Amino acid sequence: MTPRPTSEAPAAAARHAGPEDRAARRADLLAAAAGLLLVVAAAAIGTVIEHANGSLHVNWPPLYASWFPHVGPGTPAALAVAVLVVGYGPPLAARLPWRGLLLACWAAAMAWTWSLALIDGWQTGIARRLTTEYEYLTVIRRFDDLGPALRGFTGHILNNAPDHWPAHVAGHPPAAVLTFVGLDRIGLGGGAWAGVWCITVGASAAAAVLVALRALTDEPLARRAAPFLVLAPAAVWVGTSADGYFAAVAAWCLALLALAATRRTGGGRRSAPVPAAAAALASGLLLGLTCYLSYGLTLIVLPAAAVLLLARNARPVALLVAGAATVAVAFTLAGFDWWEGYRLLVERYYQGAAGVRPYAYWVWGNLACAVLITGPATVAGVRRALAAAPAALRRLRPSAGPPPGPAGRLTVLVLAALLAVLIADLSGMSKAETERIWLPFAWWLLAACALLPGAHRRPWLAAQAVLALLLNHLLYTGW
């Protein structure tokens, strides 16, 4: 049974903190300060570059946003959610029954995301977000005849192609636009329903990460992460962008894989709530869908590999591959060639703004975006993960004795997400707009907040909320 926290426990822990604990907390603060300096440098240097030659193609570097201080109908709700989660989130996360915690986490994440989106108002913040000239909803009618649309999809990717696709349609495999075509077919067409879909599904990523953390680490550590997953600054872009929905699909893929890989018949670990075979196959189907939602999300295989490595179990691989292959075969038979689509996307990418956006700025400016979507607490948590990495990685070797403990396993999972981000960054295919593009990896970096000491968790949680509130009230984000 999870011990019930008391109000005296954090104070007692703080009083008895040793020199090593105090040094670790100072290092956390220094890491957060370094993250802030990175953001300031990206903003200052980026502004100079943009004013000099306009090559960044963003109005408020490093974000795709404009300076626009404002309040809106979502402001009171956002403040209320922030206060409630900071004040009551940690003890509730420790005490709620597990299934109740999952539902509460999803509901609270939705409340946070909805309230942030509504700071810009219903029309601007939600209903019209996915109806701009760059977005998916502008081409729904072109998919009335689905077969020819899929067979001819790659013929409209390049900018000089006849009736070329808008930027986001061209930049993704067809599962992305087909999602909104499907909503339209069942009577949920238009920008409002698309926004509702992205926020509702996108917020469920918080619950998915909890499921994975409990399976791979332990329940207390997952519970410690819950409030940080709710008050994620990333929610600013989950509401409303399709990438928030993509992130949730990827998160549930990893959560189901974790359940499949850690199912045991004994040894003290609880059985998964679904059969291991069903979880592995469902994970594979979601992996396939993830790769057909976004080319860049093929990097989700790195956290997936970390899941299997931590579980020391390769049995789910066959069904995982079978599920992913099913999706790939279905799209191939329908006439879409993923590899040809990716090849043409790279060409289209450099036909647009990416052709002039300087790699020398974005290769580190993107990391400032990552700081903004994950927050100072995540920077501190990732610092702790990096500090623990050598020991955790050594203990992954079977010859090294017992496997890593819960914190060590969380460290490995965070490192896998961080590696995916770094590869995406160095590839040059993520120059700008990574505040939405990297949402699928941001959720797993946020899990590092569970490594922060309990006595100081509320201040870190408050810092996360303040950052998100400032971003949404001071800037008008493009997504």
Q: Strands, helices and their partners?
A:
Layout: H1 8-15, H2 19-53, E1 65-67, H3 75-95, H4 98-117, H5 122-127, H6 146-151, H7 167-170, H8 175-185, H9 191-203, H10 205-216, H11 219-230, H12 235-238, H13 242-262, H14 276-293, H15 301-311, H16 317-333, H17 338-351, H18 359-374, H19 376-394, H20 406-426, H21 434-437, H22 439-446, H23 457-474, E2 475-477
Antiparallel strand pairs: 1-2
Helix pairs in contact: 2-18, 2-19, 3-4, 3-11, 3-23, 4-9, 4-10, 4-11, 9-13, 10-11, 10-13, 13-14, 13-15, 13-22, 14-16, 15-20, 19-20, 20-22
Summary?
This protein has 23 helices and two strands. The chain has 479 residues and is mostly helical.
Describe the structure.
This protein has 479 residues and is mainly alpha-helical. It is 67% helix and 1% strand. The chain is built from 23 helices and two strands. Strands 1-2 form a two-stranded antiparallel ribbon. α19 packs across α20. The radius of gyration is 22 Å and the shape is globular.
Question: Helical segment tally?
Answer: 23
Molecular shape: globular
Order of helix and strand elements from N to C terminus: HHEHHHHHHHHHHHHHHHHHHHHHE
Provide the helix percentage.
55-70%
Overall strand count:
2
Sheet with most strands: 2 strands, antiparallel
> What's the pLDDT, averaged over the residues?
93
What order do the strands of the largest sheet run in, or round the barrel if closed?
Answer: 1-2
**Percent range for β-strand residues:** under 5%
Cα end-to-end separation? 43 Å
Rg on CA atoms, Å: 22 Å
> Which secondary-structure class do the elements indicate?
mainly alpha
Uncertain runs: 1-15, 265-272
